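user: Please review this fold.
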Amino acid sequence: MAGNFPDYEENGRLYHGYKKGIYMFPCDEEEKDRMDIFHKFFHVARNKHTSVKYKPNHDGYRIMDLGTGTGIWAIDMADDNTNAEVIGFDISLMQPQTIPPNLTFRRRDFEAPWHGLAMDSYDLIHLRMLAGSISSPRELYANIFRHLKPDYGFIEHVEIDFQPRCDNDSLPRHAALFEWADLLMSATAQAYKPIAYNTETGTMLQDTGFIDIKEEIIRIPFNPWPDNDAHQREIGRWFNLGLCQGLEALTLGPMTRIHGWSRERVLKLVAEVKREICMKKHEVYCRMHIWTARRPA
């Protein structure tokens, strides 16, 4: 979808102008850096796998990336699968100009009707970190189901459950990190785009008609505190870097628009959360959920 929708400034950050207000997070250079850091984090957490561990075995393989952001996942997939056609959709045109020849980016609100997209035609539809952007997950899954190829079209949906967990009380429940998570989840829920992890994901995929439904859960330390696990430490390093980069972006829109906080009050909370998550004595973690499922014949 073409058109000129200039970005606008709010609380010192730039937000997309297309369908103004439906997406609560920025689209400026700082946020692009955060997205690319998180791409590296996902790569580390998934043992250097960009996506599910299967490769196309035929020509005409088609891949769709919903909420592509900077497009870095789609670029990697296009580079890795040169015989595939890859398309990335996002409401913000923040992707680079120089891209692989088998990759296309388009502006689209994925919760709007999917006009112009052929049904039964995609081998893989990928979603990652879209919690906070989805108001109707069942409707979205139904659209994905209809557009996957029968028998071997796959969905891959990756989300972070930001709810902090601490098994040894090294971070008390009244800490700023827990307050931040509670406030962020309540604000986004009131905006009808909850960032809280949807525990009904598996049920919704099954109700939609998917089969071969699988869930992988990965523990995500908030910093490199796990002394006895090198992989967990590396996950914690990258998650800490990405979250410190992105806390302001995640928090400003929901807290100022929904809870009525001032920018200064938000930044004070963000600073305290950063202080807590950078202290290794706080053995806090959250979880990543990786869902895959197949459309039957």
